[in-house]
Each structure stands twice: as structure tokens, then as C-alpha cells.
Amino acid sequence: MGAPPQGGAVSGPAEPDPRRPLDKDPPAMLQGMRVLDLSRVLAGPWAGQLLADYGADVIKVERPDVGDDTRGWGPPWWGPADARMSAYYLSANRGKRSVAIDLATPEGAAMVRQLAAEADVLLENYKVGQLARYGLDAASLMSLNPRLVYCSVTGYGQDGPMAQAAGYDFAIQATGGLMSLTGEAEGTPGTQPQKVGVAVTDLFTGVYASTAILAALVERGRTGRGRHIDAALLDVQVAMLANQASNHLIGGTVPRRMGNAHPNIVPYQVFETADGHIVLAIGNDGQFTRLCELAGHAEVATDPRYARNPQRVAHRAELVPLLADWLRTRTTQAWMDLLEPHAVPCAPILDIAGVFTHPQVLARGLRVDLPSGSAFDHADHPANDHPAMPLVRNPMRVDGQAVVADQAPPALDQQGDAIRAALARGEGWPTR
């Protein structure tokens, strides 16, 4: 199948409709699990959203009046001016209920303890030791509820010389080595180390945290006891160095920025075409042979300098300019049409608009539109005044069905009155 033009939308006789409803009964493998989410910004909320997608009942505890920091990280905004939410906030808080509680007051801390007494999981990303002031630390709450899986997300972990330091994704990408590997090669005019275009360390930490939480819940099924999980952004970033860390530890080298090139595979980078760019991701010798044959240069694949990947890596400086000359002779789409049917890994470079109109993204239903009206009920805005909220669904499918919470991200304190009333009545964890 041909790919859409570089940087644009899919061309065709009819404009595809990106909207896709949720499956009628999405899988809810964590149904009955209760998650108390005290976290804010991205890493912790991302983990909480994943658990909500899998069916957990997630209550998000936020600061009165201001809520999660990301509520103010706009524009763009969603909703009316008096109840608007930032697009950033919406990306990480699907499927949750919101209650505003001041943890620093005795009354607020008591409410959190009530919720924690019946929770299965607690997520928090406060500075090390801060929650102990209010009796909401892991030791205190796990004494109250020995079955609690308590997950602490911090920049640098619960111990070590930087345990008290604030951790932000950008800083961790720098300290954790990722920026030293990202960007054009040193010496290229006008360049510098680059961060990745999304907060990947935060996101990976959220994913790592959720897998650790699920593992702890499985173990709790055998032992009846919870765990305290220490999830540090720096630890995750170092783990994410993957093959580059191994290149250093095994090879004794210090990996450097290489632009879009790969340290261990050639050709594996971006090339110019007659009208733009294309990615080649040649992962084995057979693919390289097919590339050469299709380009009309079969003899290059048998050249001893290029026949095997280790030789191609050794002779990168001679091979890459040769390939660059070939790639400039055709358009991106012409190369896609030539290479893709013959299993030569390649891809156009799409902008985000192009991504959401790509036929495979449409077929997989990665955009989901959730009803949003109830989020503004407290502001006296009729529900039918608000169109469905466009979000990106959880990428997992189970038995062919999309896994995603069916509730839009909540407005600040949207369910607060009902939750506080249930706690005041001594009813424990409030039902949805």
C-alpha cells in the first residue's frame, strides 16, 4: 500500500472521517480496582490514565482553585472560558474523577486517609518526605492499609545525593544522556544537543510505573500485601539508553550525536528525495540487497565493502553519499511505491495532521471522541453545547477491542461534592 504524501494528508476521492466511537463494551480488566491519584503534570497522571483505561476507578486529588499544574498549560484550550481545560491536561487524565482537597489541612489529610484505607493503588509525585508531614507517606498509609500498592514518582528517587531535587523531563533528558545522543553531529554549523519533541522520560516513567503497579497487584493476590514502588525519572532515562548504554558499557566508547543516523546499522537514516525526504530503515543484508536491485545498482550489494552490515558501518562515509545520490532521483512517493511492496523498510515523514489522516491510523481508530458535556455541568453549560472531545486512545487492543476509559478528563473538582459527601457520611470509597 502506498503511503500518504510527506507532511500532508492522505489523498483520495473521499475525505476519511477520523471520528470513531468506542467499542460498546471496552475491556475492563482492572474493574473493581481503586486508584487514588495524588500526582500532577505528566508521569504520574500518565500511569493513572493507563490504569483507568484498563478499567480501574481512579480518583484524582487536586489542589483547590488551581488543580493540576497542566490545567493552565495552554493554549490551546477546550471548553468555555470559565471552565476551560488545556489540551495538555486532557492528554493525561482520561477516565478519572476529580476532587479538590487541601492536603495541608487536618481535614484534607483525613479525607485522603479515608480514601487510601480502601484504595488498591496510590500514585504520588511529591518531593521526598513532603507527604510525611501530613501522615500520607507510604509507611503511614501502608500501615493503615497493608494491601495498598503505593507508587512514588520523583525525579531522582527516594535516596541518593539528589533525592530532594526537583525533577523535570527536560532536565532529566539532559542529565540522563538522551540529549547527548539527539541532534545533528557535533561540528555541524548552528546545531546543539536537542531534547525529544515530546516528554518521553515522563511518559516512559508512567509506563514503567504502571507495569510495576500491575506486577505488585499480581503478587498481592498471592501474599495479601502491597508494595512501595520507587519510580525515578533519572533511573528510567538511564534504562531507556538501551543499546546506546550497551555500546558504551561493552564497547568502551562514548556515543555521540549522529543526527538521524544509527550507530549500529547502515543505512538507517533520513535521505533527501526529489521533493522532500524519506526514511530508510534497512535492518538486514537481504533488505539492503533488494534496495540496491530496485534502485538499479545490484552490484553495490555484492561489493565486499557493503555486502554485510558490519562492513557497511565501517564504510558508512563512502556508502551514504552513494545512496543519497540515488534517492534524489525520485520523489518520496515514487520511492515508497517502489520499495514498500518489496519489503524494503521505508517511510515518509508526516506532520501531525498527516498522522491523523493516515489510512492505517484511521483503520486502527487511534483517535477517540468522548462526550464532554458533563465536565461543564457545574458551570451551568448545557451538555449539548459541547461537541465530543477528541483524544488519542490507549494503543492496546484486547481480543480485538480498543482498551480505553469511556469518561472524558474531568473538570477541576467535578465530582468533589459527591465524594466529600460520601466521605462525610462515613461511606468510604464513593461509588461512581
Automatic annotation (TrEMBL):
<dbReference type="Pfam" id="PF02515">
    <property type="entry name" value="CoA_transf_3"/>
</dbReference>
<dbReference type="GO" id="GO:0008410">
    <property type="term" value="F:CoA-transferase activity"/>
</dbReference>
<dbReference type="InterPro" id="IPR023606">
    <property type="entry name" value="CoA-Trfase_III_dom_1_sf"/>
</dbReference>
<feature type="region of interest" description="Disordered">
    <location>
        <begin position="1"/>
        <end position="27"/>
    </location>
</feature>
<dbReference type="InterPro" id="IPR003673">
    <property type="entry name" value="CoA-Trfase_fam_III"/>
</dbReference>
<protein>
    <submittedName>
        <fullName>Crotonobetainyl-CoA:carnitine CoA-transferase CaiB-like acyl-CoA transferase</fullName>
    </submittedName>
</protein>
<dbReference type="InterPro" id="IPR044855">
    <property type="entry name" value="CoA-Trfase_III_dom3_sf"/>
</dbReference>
<feature type="compositionally biased region" description="Basic and acidic residues">
    <location>
        <begin position="16"/>
        <end position="26"/>
    </location>
</feature>
<keyword id="KW-0808">Transferase</keyword>
<dbReference type="InterPro" id="IPR050483">
    <property type="entry name" value="CoA-transferase_III_domain"/>
</dbReference>
